[in-house]
Every structure is written in structure tokens, then in C-alpha cells.
Amino acid sequence: MARDAPSIDAYGEGGFRLSGVRHEGSMLILGDLAYPWPVASLADLTPLSLEPVLAAGRAQVEFLLLGVGARNAQPPRAVRDALQACGVGLEFMDTPAAARLYNVLTSEGRRLAAALIAV
Description:
Number of helices: 3
Distance between the termini: 24 Å
Helix content: 25-40%
CATH superfamily: MTH938-like
Strand order of the largest sheet: 5-4-8-6-7
CATH topology: Hypothetical Protein Mth938, Chain: A
Structural class: alpha/beta
Shape: globular
Radius of gyration: 13 Å
């Protein structure tokens, strides 16, 4: 999204290393900032858990890159509907693939948010 967006240097063991700093648990990256994200599994994912992304909307976020955990699975319908209603696209995949793709897309200057469930 932004030139100063954090890079994902590593993932696993229940957290991430973003721009050289270890963070425990799941992470939500929006713009240049990364936040702890209280979603431990796909079952915890709700529209409310994505409120910062929904509030930013299409003007700031082209699409949400969602890392759903160790194995790819479809997010809940309520989440898909909420993103569609605010005009934000959704790409979902297992967290390792999402972490790798995030770095590629941010290096291209794409306006995306990433919600990554820790593995």
C-alpha cells in the first residue's frame, strides 16, 4: 500500500517478524501500520474484527489480503458480504502464501490491507 509499509520478514511459531521486529499473534496491516489482531482462527473472524479495513473502505484499500491460517479455507459469508458492501475486494489464502504475496504486492505500491492469522 504505502512505501513505508512494514515488510514481513518471517512467520510461524505463533507470530510474525515485521521489519525486523517480532510480534506475537495475528496481525492486521493497514497502510504503514501493523496492529495486533485478536483473531486466532477463522472461527473468530467477523465483520467487527475487520472494522478498521471496512472503515477505510475503497478509497484507501483496494483489497484485503487475508491469511486464514495453516490451510486455505473460505472466510465466513458475513465477512465477504461486509467487504463487498464497502467496495473492498478480498483475496484469501493460507497465511504462509499471504505473507509472501503481501511483500510482493506492497513492493508494487498496491493499496491493500493484510489480515494475517498467526500459524
